[in-house]
Amino acid sequence: MIQEIFRKVDEGRGLERDDIRYLLENRESVEEAVFEKARAITDLHFHKKIYVRGLIEFTNHCHNNCYYCGIRRDNDEVERYRITPEELESAVAVGAEAGFQTFVLQGGEDAYFTDERLADWVRRIKKIQPSCAITLSVGERSMESYARLKEAGADRFLLRHETYDPAHYKKLHPKEMDQQKRMKCLKDLKALGYQVGSGFMVGSPYQTIENLVEDFMFLQEFQPAMIGIGPYVRHHATPFRDFENGSVELTAMCIAILRLLFPTANIPSTTAMQTLAEDGRNRGILAGANVFMPNLSPPRVRKSYALYDNKAAFALEAAENLRDLKEQIAELGYEIVMSRGDFTGRENYN
Ligand code: SAM
Question: Which domains can be identified in the chain, with CATH numbers?
Answer without folding.
Answer: 37-337 (3.20.20.70)
